[in-house]
């Protein structure tokens, strides 16, 4: 057949630049010539004559070579471009995208493990140290409001000086400064006097705002005295928890270091008593700041902004708290020191600063501090009047306290019904953020805020699952690529044909479609189907979504692997390679066995779920089920592929042979049953020990289940390469498959990453849109909580008090 | 009577498309069928069939796949795509009109 070979080589020589095309065309022409020669031979020609006849009928060698080159030139050019694109662009891009997604998923898993048990939603969604950027083009004033923590307050002082008539800017500056007030006892006089000067300037900026008077009073009293907690005046009150029970509370006792400082503090206090307002403008600043945020595109942005807001230190509250606590103690101290008239004056006004600041509260924390101060002052007043020898006043004060306490209890009781509704809805349709961040006793309209947030959280989870999926995909692609590299390297050494086997555009498109189909179906299920409207509890909804996604992505991974392998296999078979038994490396090769393995995994998950549900809280079973199923399913194709790669180019090693014989001894059903029995036994054992240390054992069971699952896979699917000449041919096919699947998988990876990521980006921004527009931009706003009722109550008291004691008529001390 | 080579060359594409529209075939099979149906009067240079097939495949009029022939050997089978069928229809129409025109000129009548 030498003449035939020479002819075929001569007409296809120019096609050698593309090994696969060259090989394809050579085989086709050779087959034709062989058929023609065989027919001539059948007519009675000799071997040489039949070959000559076949060749002469085929035509002129030179002309044919030119025609074949012309006919295939475009195809080869396209393939060359595709090869270069793969080598230069697709592979590095796929690796870069994969690494980015892997990093994201690793970071998210880390947050998942570290933060979720503590229910720190901010750290989970936005990281431990979220960064928030302001929108571009902020003015100096806006930037000052945005960066609430300035390191150099001297600069801030200068800046504030440029806005002399802006009460909000000034209050913001004072609040920043108040972060240092906790060191008031040790601070040098110079610094202390500077603080006082800043507060004095505040009084000029806002003459009717008592906050600066009270902060000054607090500074003097904190500097001049220590407080012993629980050692002061005790009083009884009717508690709401448990309802109706009478409990006792004790105030602080004052240890005075500097009586003059106390006197100065009281003088500042009296100056604030008659003023109409008492606010630090913290809420005003928060509202202004929300306008300076960049519009949030992702949940991380949004959560970071909330965190940014939350990281604002409300240090003025702790300063005021110190003042409110000390006032009754101060009255008691004055009584002890014989300054009875001064004590009576303090007793008459000591609840007033708390009431004033409560009436102007803008944040929940401010109402709570005011409520505590007001209640303590009212509660201790009767005892102070009794010590002053004014029993009638004491009785009246007690009456007023009981009235105030009853008012608070009423509000709290009403808030409870909101609480019940809140708990019920939180369980059914709450977002993780609502569960961890919404202050207690909020009004039902919080759900307008919750719904889009919940959707955005689910998109975030989808992104997390995507990251996991891409991680698995990237690992597989890299593994194939690395395994194929040595053969790429050896190409020049001899075995040069079919360097990169091209499966064809249609097959490549089919592989992509197979990879994307589960994703599309899931999208339809969640967006158009019933899944979107399913009411689920906050954490089980979270985990169910993760479990669903894990299943979808594993399906997509398996589908794309199977489709890619089928395509490469079909192409190799077309090219005349020995491709071995059907479906090597195809996870869906034997559906019965694959289903049996899946059944083992699911059964393991169910056993674990049963155990966990019987013995532990809500979170762990939800975590456990997808972990068992997900781990096994995710590891399945990877372990399988890596395992198979061991056989490439080798004859069957001893260990594999042993495993094979072991596997051969069992039907897949038998293996499944054994695995099931093992799992049930392990489960019973675990149930016994779960009483002692729940989590550790459950985790151990998870690993056992995953381990059994993988072993079953290995037993059922492991197929060593046959030895001998056929084995060599198979090994050649496998090497080709390794090389050729890499670009296909990389293309799937890129398509997955780009499509899913693009979609999730848009979805997240879309769901966050109503959040951005709603009033619920910051969660401490008291307008939506029961706190607003108490604020209104204090506001009413304040109005009455001002009506009864017009500021002008107030006898201010000289 | 053997046909003129130029005449045969111009009809290769519609003939190949028509034959493959009937059933999928490999190259040698196409040659055999043509010879059978024309009693060998179409003196195809068999080799020129392959550039034609490759070009039609690159144009999306044909699709090919390696498959086992009845004799157990692997052969590259071609079949017509939907686009190929449309092209065949167009070529047939073209041929009818062309033949009509040639008949009118050479014979002075409609065939």
Distance between the termini of chain B: 20 Å
Major β-sheet strand ordering of chain B: 1-3-2
Global structural class of chain A: mainly alpha
Helix content of chain A: over 70%
CA-based gyration radius of chain B: 15 Å
The share of residues in helices of chain B is: 55-70%
Number of strands of chain A: 4
**Major sheet details of chain A:** 2 strands, antiparallel
**Number of helices, counting only DSSP H or I runs of 4 residues or more of chain A:** 29
Quote the distance from N terminus to C terminus of chain A: 126 Å
Task: State which percent range the strand residues of chain A make up.
Answer: under 5%
Instruction: Tell me the total number of β-strands of chain B.
Output: 3
Average pLDDT of chain A works out at: 74
Shape call of chain A: elongated
Tally of helical segments of chain B: 4
Major sheet size, sense and barrel closure of chain B: 3 strands, antiparallel
Q: Structural class per helix/strand content of chain B?
A: alpha+beta
Q: What's the helix-strand series of chain B?
A: HEHHEEH
From the structure above, extract its key features.
heterodimer; A: 814 residues; mainly alpha; 29 helices; 73% helix; 3% strand; elongated; disordered C terminus; B: 111 residues; alpha+beta; three-stranded antiparallel beta sheet; 4 helices; 3 strands; 59% helix; globular
Write the layout of secondary structure elements.
The complex is a heterodimer of chains A (814) and B (111).
Chain A: H1 2-12, H2 19-42, H3 47-58, H4 61-115, H5 121-126, H6 140-146, H7 153-161, H8 167-178, H9 189-205, H10 211-224, E1 225-228, E2 234-240, E3 243-250, E4 253-256, H11 259-273, H12 282-290, H13 299-310, H14 315-336, H15 340-349, H16 352-359, H17 364-387, H18 391-429, H19 432-437, H20 446-489, H21 505-527, H22 538-574, H23 591-615, H24 619-645, H25 654-664, H26 668-690, H27 694-717, H28 724-773, H29 787-804
Antiparallel strand pairs in A: 1-4, 2-3
Helix pairs in contact in A: 1-2, 1-4, 2-3, 4-20, 4-28, 7-8, 8-9, 9-10, 10-11, 10-14, 14-15, 14-17, 15-17, 16-17, 16-29, 17-18, 17-29, 20-22, 20-24, 20-28, 21-22, 21-28, 22-24, 22-28, 23-24, 23-26, 23-27, 24-27, 26-27
Chain B: H1 5-22, E1 25-26, H2 27-38, H3 49-58, E2 62-68, E3 74-80, H4 82-107
